[in-house]
Request: fold
Amino acid sequence: MIKLLKIEAKKILTYKIFWILIGLYFIFLSAGISMAEFMINNMVDSTNRHLPIPIPHVAIYFFPWVWQNIAFFASIRYVLIFPAMVIIILITNEFTFKTIRQNVINGMSKAEFLASKLQLILLISLAITFLLSIGTLILGLSNTSDISFGLVLEKSSFIFGFFVTILSFQIFALFFGFLLRNTGLSIALFTLYVFIVEPILYYFLKSPIVFKNDISTYLPVNSILRITEYPAIPVLKQVMGLNLQDSVSFLACCIPLFYSALMVGIVYWVLLKRDL
Reply:
């Protein structure tokens, strides 16, 4: 395991695109989190103009709900796309520059090559989850007046939910990269599916013209994003009638993990069957 990670580290430590995309990810994530409360309260102000009884401003950075709120904003597809693009570029570069062939010639098996990429995805997911946890703790401690150990940890399971989200999303990107093997085509089709194809399919399956079903719930990207479905903001329940999420569902985590295992299995089968 350590040997495979060292090989991956040599490839990415001096790779500028990797650091640029990871940097953009944290910039967009930080900007989104810092602006979230301000934007929500602007929406509340707009809504209050049409209500006889005004809705009070909301706070989203206090314990225990800060875990859920930060996990939700960090799980938006427009933010998750950056680490996913990193994975696509790293994988497709292996085929573009024939380094995968060289690795196999030097004695690395195809299974080890795939394992090295999965280990990299796991490491990136753990690192981002750790940094997000530290940031959430700082936000929560800064904005909560009455703090207790139990209160701090009460909703921390949402961080595990975020870990499953980012892990599964990157494995989905790995799936596209390995199957298409071309950087531009992989990124184009991946973003097309994530932002256009699946949302259209999702709303089509939920429309009245289709027989009543829950199929849209189990679409790959939707199942990933549904782990943390809504932020913990009471105004959403008051104005929109949404049932706010109380915890991370075990089933909600199992569905994207099942997809991830299936995609890894398909990638491994394709690696064995196709020429490098």
User: Anything to note?
Assistant: The chain has one domain: 2-273.
